[in-house]
Each structure stands twice: as structure tokens, then as C-alpha cells.
Specification:
Strand content: 5-15%
Shape: globular
Helix content: 25-40%
Radius of gyration: 18 Å
Low-confidence stretches: none
Number of helices: 8
Mean pLDDT: 87
Number of domains: 2
CATH topology of the largest domain: Rossmann fold
Bound molecules: zinc ion
């Protein structure tokens, strides 16, 4: 992007900083410029990255998060990578503020945490799938929720990760055809799948044919959303779909 600064907006945000100085949401210290004030580097570094892998379907331990053979019959994600542990209370707080209180700036520290995890995978686990240049693809939001929130949190993460790892991010390939009930409000797994069936649509399939996809979302719970996306991506000719999320709820 060009070095363009929207001066009126920039000035307004600096004035807002003076009137309402931003505090780190964890330790309460004021304004750490690196992360736009909402989270300091020290607090970010206390959040451990994840060292375990579980199958997207049965959650049992599997090598490098690869979907087990039994679950592969009904789960379309080939591999699930989870950057951090959702039992960490600070992480829960950051994700909730990012997602439900619309603090867009928290995308940056969350992407740094995910970056640290991917570097760990490459160094300690020799998992170098990023060298195959997968296309970064965020899980889409419905228009209704996008309008309400003002941004798609997965899209922000995908942008930052694509920039960090020099990946191509594809947009306009997958979209939601309607507004489903939020998955978090549905208890049973089967009902969650029904809720999503037929909800996503592929356009411009030529952009993804024979490619590997890195499908990015903030949180995975049952895996139904990731699997439904992976299903239609594969129907459109995608080779492999790796799911990457910050945490598994
Ligand atoms: Zn802090
Ligand atoms: Zn399994």
C-alpha cells in the first residue's frame, strides 16, 4: 500500500489518544506504541503458544494436527493448526475484545502470536508448509455481521499473516450466501453442521484450482465452519486445506 496518511483522521486519532490514553488491556499500563496501545509486548509475551495437536473431528492427539483417517471421511480440513491455548485467561480476554468489542487493533498482537507459533512449527517441528506458498484465505463473515462489526476479524489476521510470510491473500473467492445463527449459540454438533450447509459460495474458482489453501479464522469450536468452507473449496478444485486458528474453544 502507498504511504498515504489520511491527515484529518490521523489528527483526530492523535487527539483521541490525548483525551483517552490507551491502556494495555491486561496490565493496565498506558500506551505502548508498538501495539497501538491496547496490549503491551510484555503481556503478549506471557501468552504461551500451543505445543499440542488434535484432530479437527475427534480432538484426539494426532501428528501435526492432521485429520485422522476415521474423521477424514466427514471432515474436509486436512490439518488443523492452533496457535495458542484457549484456557489462557488473558488470551480469552484479548479475543473477546477483538471480536465482540470491536477493538480492531488487537489483530496485530494476535497475528504476532500466530507468527511466533508458525516460526516454532517450522523450527521445532520442521513443518514448512508455508514454503509451498499456500493462498491465505479468511473465513468470511455474513454481510449483516460485517456491517455490524465494521470489520472481519479473520480478514485482518489473514492480511497481517500474508504480509509477514509473503503469502498471497485471495479475496472474493468464498462468500456467505445468507446469515446463519452464530455458531456459538448452537449446542449440538449436528445442528451446527445443518446451520451451515449451503451457506458458503465459491466465485472465481480459477483462482484456487489445484492450489493449497491456508484457511484462517480466529476461533474454532466444533470445526463445522472450517469444514464447510474446506468442503466447497475442494469441490471447486482446491488440493489441500490447512486450517489455522488462534485458539480452539
Ligand atoms: Zn501489558
Ligand atoms: Zn479424528
Amino acid at each position: 500500500m502507498a504511504n498515504f496518511i489520511n491527515y484529518p483522521q490521523y489528527l483526530l486519532s492523535r487527539i483521541a489518544d490525548l483525551i483517552f490514553p490507551k491502556k494495555c488491556i491486561i496490565c493496565g499500563r498506558f500506551n505502548d506504541k508498538n501495539f497501538d496501545g491496547y496490549l503491551c509486548a510484555k503481556c503478549l509475551n506471557t501468552i504461551p503458544i500451543n505445543h499440542s495437536f488434535g484432530c479437527i473431528g475427534c480432538k484426539r492427539p494426532v501428528a501435526l494436527g492432521k485429520t485422522c483417517r476415521l474423521c477424514a471421511k466427514t471432515n474436509h480440513i486436512d490439518q488443523l493448526l492452533v496457535a495458542a491455548d484457549y484456557k489462557n485467561q488473558d488470551l480469552i480476554k484479548i479475543i473477546k475484545l477483538f471480536k465482540y468489542r470491536f477493538i480492531k487493533e488487537l489483530g496485530l498482537p494476535l497475528s504476532l502470536l500466530t507468527k511466533k507459533y508458525l516460526v516454532y512449527l517450522a523450527r521445532a517441528k520442521k513443518l514448512n508448509f508455508l514454503e509451498e506458498n499456500p493462498l491465505a484465505l479468511p473465513v468470511p463473515l455474513s454481510n449483516k455481521r460485517l456491517n455490524w462489526r465494521g470489520f472481519n476479524q479473520s480478514d485482518i489476521l489473514a492480511d497481517l499473516l500474508a504480509e509477514n510470510f509473503h503469502l498471497e491473500k485471495v479475496t472474493g473467492v468464498i462468500s456467505r450466501t445468507g446469515n446463519s445463527k452464530p455458531q456459538a449459540e448452537i449446542e449440538e454438533k449436528d445442528k451446527r453442521l445443518d446451520n451451515l450447509s449451503g451457506l458458503f459460495r465459491i466465485s472465481c474458482a480459477d483462482k484456487i484450482t489445484n492450489k493449497n489453501i491456508l484457511l484462517i479464522d480466529d476461533v474454532c469450536t466444533t470445526g463445522a465452519t472450517l469444514n464447510e468452507c474446506a468442503k466447497i473449496l475442494k469441490e471447486a478444485g482446491v488440493k489441500r486445506v490447512t486450517g489455522l486458528v488462534i485458539a480452539r474453544g
